[in-house]
């Protein structure tokens, strides 16, 4: 993984530059030392450092520490907040009891806009870099447009109308009063940026065909993002077209074994299809950035997880799976068995989460419980390899787009326009089902196939941050949440207004153009 390390090493070197664009009031611009900026964006190495900053925000309050996952998993019928974490801002998220001052909401908003601010500067400065090659400038521009599109895609789905800022501020306060833009205008910008990244609308702006070993995006990522955007907008023909472009490229394939898609040692083998399933993910390196925590957060709260030289590492238990959620995963599906192993050994000998001579968990809040034989269950799909680093700051990437997603988006889009033939099923959903050991689907109506796709996405992407947006897209969030029994001791009742989050109050206070919040917080 030397190439990966080199790319992430430069992120640390870029901290001083990105500080110029760090925002205290989030969307509000701060003064910029124009001479310093102009001098910096000048050669290949500096542009590469600049684009690296855009990727760092995938970890900054998004995927590294598990907090974004709480928004996308704990607020669904898949997972519940762990026993030892049912307090304060995290419980408020899991129970839809948050308000505009919730610190997790503020942090998420901040991270997206800080990344966008940096990409705005880079999009303006890269073409002017006198000592950079045209190929590097064009590739960097494509990546910057992709990342800006990606972050706005998160913002518009979470908050709806948000300030749409696509230019670098030249002086303090220039963008401070940006109003909330209409949702359709935000999606227009997302599509425009993603098409630029895909090489469609701006000559010379190109990405490599596939995801590279260094964690940077390829054209497949841009096309997959477009498929996702169009599926969200219910433009099924365009969603199918972009998914088909990824399929027809022959640059990706499913691993034969589901577990291999989460094995760091196999994810980036150059001759594996190539790059096998990985299209876009958030990468981490515990030696540098300092890594991810979501594997640690998924383990039982308080349970001692010995590894290497640290015998006192403990699980955090942010993600529990209730019996009803566990039962939605079909018995006999090998993916279920992989995600919920009943025994787990960290390396050899006695490095086990339970005494090898016993049958129950040792230590913590779940002492004497049989692991994954009784509720609550713990999904361990990110904890299968690299035991030495797994429970500190690990290097598991968080999968944002896998090839399986492309296949299931394709069949969903075609089913909605009545074009999901048996051949389509055999080339998409039946491939993912077969990998789980399930029988192929055939002879389904549009309605029964729709339900089968919903079930398949629930299983295939369990604990991958897909569930919340899937439920919203299908119009199923309200019924899924209001019918769940997660043992919080309270009844959760929401309506469609809870598809969106409240804008941070600190942003409303700083921006006079924002005069109201989302319902029911306005």
List the helices and strands and how they pair.
Blueprint: H1 2-13, H2 15-19, H3 34-40, H4 44-56, H5 67-74, H6 88-94, H7 103-125, H8 134-159, H9 183-197, H10 219-232, H11 236-248, E1 278-282, H12 294-298, H13 323-327, H14 334-339, E2 398-402, H15 403-416, H16 422-427, H17 429-435, H18 446-460, H19 467-474, H20 477-482, H21 505-510
Antiparallel strand pairs: 1-2
Given the helix and strand composition, which structural class is it? mainly alpha
The major pleated sheet works out as: 2 strands, antiparallel
**Average predicted local confidence, pLDDT:** 82
Catalogue the unreliable spans: 1-35, 270-274, 347-352, 384-391
Q: What proportion of the residues is helical, as a percent range?
A: 40-55%
Strand order of the largest sheet: 1-2
Describe the structure in your own words.
The structure is a single chain. This protein is an all-alpha fold. The protein has a domain at 2-207: Serine Threonine Protein Phosphatase 5, Tetratricopeptide repeat. It is built from 21 helices and two strands. It has helices at 2-13, 15-19, 34-40, 44-56, 67-74, 88-94, 103-125, 134-159, 183-197, 219-232, 236-248, 294-298, 323-327, 334-339, 403-416, 422-427, 429-435, 446-460, 467-474, 477-482, 505-510; strands spanning 278-282, 398-402. It has a two-stranded antiparallel sheet. Helix 4 packs parallel to helix 8 (134-159), helix 9 runs antiparallel to helix 10 and helix 10 (219-232) runs parallel beside helix 15 (403-416). Mean pLDDT is 82; it is low at 1-35, 270-274, 347-352 and 384-391.
């Amino acid at each position: 993984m030397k190439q990966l390390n080199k790319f992430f090493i430069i992120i640390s070197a870029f901290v001083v530059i990105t500080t110029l664009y760090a925002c205290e009031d989030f969307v509000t611009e701060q003064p910029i030392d124009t001479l310093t900026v102009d001098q910096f964006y000048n050669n290949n190495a500096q542009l590469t450092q600049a684009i690296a900053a855009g990727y760092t925000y995938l970890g900054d309050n998004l995927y590294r520490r598990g907090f974004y996952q709480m928004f996308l998993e704990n607020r669904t019928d898949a997972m519940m907040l762990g026993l030892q974490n049912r307090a304060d801002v995290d419980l408020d998220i899991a129970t839809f009891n948050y308000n505009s001052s919730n610190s997790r909401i503020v942090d998420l908003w901040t991270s997206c806009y800080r990344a966008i601010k940096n990409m705005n500067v880079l999009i303006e400065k890269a073409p002017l870099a006198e000592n950079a090659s045209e190929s590097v400038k064009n590739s960097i521009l494509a990546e910057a447009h992709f990342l800006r599109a990606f972050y706005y895609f998160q913002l518009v789905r979470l908050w709806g109308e948000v300030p749409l800022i696509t230019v670098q501020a030249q002086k303090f306060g220039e963008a401070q009063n940006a109003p909330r833009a209409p949702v359709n205008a935000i999606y227009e910008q997302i599509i425009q940026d993603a098409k630029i990244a895909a090489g469609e609308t701006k000559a010379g702006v190109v990405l490599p065909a596939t995801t590279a070993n260094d964690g940077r995006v390829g054209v497949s990522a841009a096309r997959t993002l477009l498929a996702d955007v169009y599926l969200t907008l219910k433009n099924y023909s365009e969603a199918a077209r972009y998914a088909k472009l990824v399929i027809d490229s022959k640059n990706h394939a499913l691993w034969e074994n589901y577990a291999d898609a989460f094995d760091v040692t196999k994810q980036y083998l150059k001759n594996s299809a190539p790059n096998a399933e990985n299209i876009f993910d958030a990468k981490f390196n515990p030696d540098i950035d300092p890594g991810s925590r979501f594997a640690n957060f998924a383990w039982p709260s308080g349970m001692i997880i010995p590894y290497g030289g640290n015998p006192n590492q403990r699980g955090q238990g942010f993600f529990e799976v209730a019996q009803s959620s566990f039962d939605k995963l079909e018995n006999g599906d090998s993916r279920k068995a992989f995600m919920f192993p009943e025994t787990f050994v960290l390396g050899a000998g006695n490095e086990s989460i339970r005494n090898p001579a016993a049958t129950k968990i040792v230590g913590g809040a779940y002492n004497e419980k049989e692991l994954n034989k009784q509720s609550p269950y713990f999904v361990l799909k990110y904890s299968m390899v690299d035991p030495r680093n797994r429970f500190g700051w690990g290097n598991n990437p968080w999968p944002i787009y896998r090839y399986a997603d492309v296949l299931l988006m394709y069949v969903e889009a075609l089913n909605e326009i009545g074009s999901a033939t048996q051949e389509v099923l055999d080339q998409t959903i039946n491939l993912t089902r077969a990998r789980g050991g399930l029988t192929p689907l055939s002879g389904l109506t549009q309605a029964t196939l729709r339900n089968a796709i919903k079930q398949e996405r629930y299983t295939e992407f369990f604990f991958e941050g897909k569930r919340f947006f899937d439920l919203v897209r299908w119009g199923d969030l309200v019924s899924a949440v209001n019918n769940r029994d997660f043992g919080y001791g309270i009844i959760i009742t929401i309506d469609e207004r809870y598809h969106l989050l409240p804008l941070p109050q600190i942003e409303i206070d700083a921006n006079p153009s924002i005069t109201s919040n989302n319902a029911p917080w306005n």
